[in-house]
Write a structure and sequence with these properties.
heterodimer, A: 271 residues, MetI-like fold, 78% helix, B: 380 residues, alpha+beta, 2 domains, 6-stranded mixed sheet, 5-stranded antiparallel sheet, 9 helices, 24% helix, 33% strand, globular
């Protein structure tokens, strides 16, 4: 076992503090009795109770979830198709342009993406609201899905598709029964990524949403401008909890799967 | 199994002009851009034949196999299977199945479902599928592993699943791409014989692609030696080994010593070649080249005798040299003998007795010699 040097301990403490101290403070003050955010006045859960009566905040949460579910699902379908096209048809005209255009939103400043979409919606006379918001989220999350799925497809063994066709499966049957199940984990993590990106987007949402379609980040931001209340801390704590649980489940599942796989392999070679 | 052996010995449809080929490859060329992978190639493969395509990597053997399976289309030429042209028929409609080099097992399916995959595509009734899968599992001795996934199997077991899966649909032809490439030596040797027995038992036509000459020699009825997209020689393993038609085949299959020289006399079914090494060989030849022509003489190491005494046939078919290197392999010993002009030849002798009283040692003066029918004349 390696000895813990003072330097190691110091860097770990500093690193963790840098990352998590603000979050820990936020969580602690969400249980504050006082209305003043920076003064501790004893433990209380009253802000959480109050949250349930804040209809505007609940509405915003519901909009956010719906936008996230719809946009992540559509983006996953489109992104997977784009990734397939990019890896399978390597020699079509304009491939470079196409791939460049798929990845552009990754590096494009969100302000520009948001503004350009706002201009488009205005130009075609599309009333801004829930659907413009969803469309915008599909657009900017699709490229992330494409990147995740494409990296899986690059290591995909094409011979299993050939084997399927050799055994009588049509190209469609091959895709549905062989390709899709094999890349499903990547498609799923693309979906999760798209969903979380949609969940916490503020900039593009601000440009493309309209009346009646306010997302949670937008609501929080507008409330904060009027002053941080412990209520906001409570909402954020809940969000942090949800994300933490999600990450925990994902890592536990993948880790136990990994352990199972290693065990299986050892069992196979013991025979 | 005794009867199978006798069937095998008398099996030679290629020698019978009346027999109809099962697979006829007619002047097939396949180009990838400017690269010619298969070059105007023609071949006949007969029903129930175990046919091997042998060659170094890049010789076009895999491309030919992929054209049979339907993954590639010939640039020109035609492939006929059982009287039907395969042009334009996609892989999923061909009555052939392939066993892939990487096995290409479906990682998300159990062994059972892997084997059942092709049958399900055909819409076979469930009960029949279960029965067939059971039968295939027994055939490859994997009945205990039906519920496992591919990653829970060893390499040898995966190979057998791949085999069972490709045989499950009872294809007319089974294509095997380097079927034993990923197995270790011992398992490979066992599996070679299993494959042969299986092919006999099922009465199928097998086309196997391999770069391993031993594998091809052991399993195949006939071997096509390929180079640069062309077939150099098609013949039975003994013919390929004992009567190679070219320098390339002689050199590619097994070890060989080649002596270059000029034909000095021809007569009575034999030909004499004055070799550049300084001695004259007299060799049996049914189609001898003309006197004065350049020719090569190829002789396998195991057909060369090495001894201390001057052989009776000297100076014909004999030369003097010294032992340069000795390789003891257990079952046999390989001698490298350096002849007077500096050429080093290989000779091997079987270690038929456990202890030789006075074995040949390094730097010893020896004679090498061979019989008139020990080697072949190479005209190229």
């Amino acid at each position: 076992m390696q000895r813990w040097s003072r330097f190691n301990i110091a860097s770990i403490v500093l690193g963790f503090a840098f990352l998590y101290l603000p979050i820990v403070l936020l969580v602690i003050f969400s249980f504050n009795e006082s209305k003043l955010v920076t003064v501790w006045a004893g433990f209380s859960t009253k802000w959480y109770v109050q949250l349930l009566h804040n209809q505007a905040l609940l509405d915003a949460a519901w909009v956010t979830v719906r936008v996230g579910l719809i946009s992540a699902t559509v983006a996953t379908v489109l992104g997977t198709m784009a990734a397939l096209a990019m890896t399978r048809y390597t020699r079509f005209r304009g491939r470079m342009l196409f791939s460049g255009m798929i990845y552009a939103p990754l590096v494009m400043p969100e302000v520009i993406t948001g503004l350009s979409m706002l201009l488009l919606f205005v130009a075609i006379g599309f009333d801004r609201g829930f659907w413009t918001l969803t469309l915008a989220h599909i657009t900017f999350t699709m490229c992330f899905v494409a990147v995740v799925v494409q990296s899986r497809l690059l290591s995909f063994d094409r011979s299993i598709e050939e084997a399927a066709m050799d055994l009588g499966a049509t190209p469609v049957a091959t895709f549905l029964q062989v390709t899709l199940p094999v890349i499903a984990p990547a498609v799923f993590s693309g979906w999760v990524l798209a969903f979380t990106l949609s969940l916490d987007d503020l900039v593009i949402s601000s440009f493309t949403s309209g009346p009646g379609a306010t997302t949670l980040p937008m609501r929080i931001y507008s409330q904060v401008r009027l002053g941080v209340t412990p209520e906001i801390n409570a909402v954020c704590t809940i969000l942090i909890g949800i994300v933490a649980i999600g990450v925990l489940i994902a890592s536990v599942v993948s880790r136990s799967r990994e352990i199972q796989r290693i065990k299986d392999e050892q069992a196979a070679f013991a025979h | 199994m005794k009867s199978l052996g006798s069937i095998r010995r008398s099996f030679a449809p290629w020698a019978d002009p009346k027999s109809v080929p099962f697979i006829a490859v007619k002047n097939v060329t396949k180009k990838f851009g400017d690269f010619v992978a298969v070059d105007d190639l023609s071949l006949n493969i007969y029903p129930r034949e175990f046919f091997a395509l042998l060659g170094a990597s890049g010789c076009g053997k895999s491309t030919l196999l992929r054209m049979l399976a339907g993954f590639e289309q010939p640039t020109s030429g035609e492939i006929i299977l059982d009287g039907q042209s395969l042009a334009g028929i996609p892989p999923y409609k061909r009555p052939v199945n392939m066993m892939f080099q990487s096995y290409a097992l479906f990682p998300h399916m159990t062994v059972e479902n892997n084997i059942a995959f092709g049958l399900k595509q055909d819409g076979m009734p469930k009960a029949d599928i279960a029965e067939r899968v059971d039968q295939m599992l027994k055939l490859v001795k994997l009945d205990k592993f039906s519920k496992r996934k591919p990653h829970q199997l060893s390499g040898g077991q995966r190979q057998r699943v791949a085999l069972a899966r490709s045989l499950a649909k009872r294809p007319k032809v089974l294509l095997l791409d380097e079927p034993l490439g990923a197995l270790d030596k011992k398992l490979r040797e066992e599996t070679q014989f299993e494959l042969m027995d299986l092919q006999q038992e099922l009465g199928l036509t097998f086309v196997v692609v391999t770069h391993d000459q031993e594998e091809a020699m052991t399993m195949a009825d006939r071997i096509a030696v390929m180079a640069h997209g062309k077939v150099v020689q098609v013949a039975t393993p003994p013919e390929i080994y004992e009567a190679p038609n070219s320098r390339f085949v002689a050199d590619f299959i097994g070890d060989v010593n080649i002596f270059d020289g000029t034909v000095s006399s021809v007569g009575n079914g034999t030909v004499e070649i004055a070799t550049e090494t300084g001695f004259t060989v007299r060799v049996a030849s049914s189609e001898p080249p003309a006197v004065g022509a350049k020719a090569g003489f190829a002789v396998r190491p195991e057909k060369i005798r090495v001894g201390r005494d001057r052989p009776a046939c000297a100076p014909l078919n004999a030369a003097q040299g010294e032992i340069w290197d000795i390789g003891y392999l257990g079952d046999m010993t390989v001698f490298h003998v350096k002849l007077k002009d500096g050429k080093v030849i290989k000779a091997s002798s079987l270690n038929a007795v456990r202890a030789v009283e006075d074995p040949l040692g390094y730097d010893q003066e020896v004679w090498i010699s061979f019989d008139e029918n020990a080697g072949v004349v190479l005209k190229d």
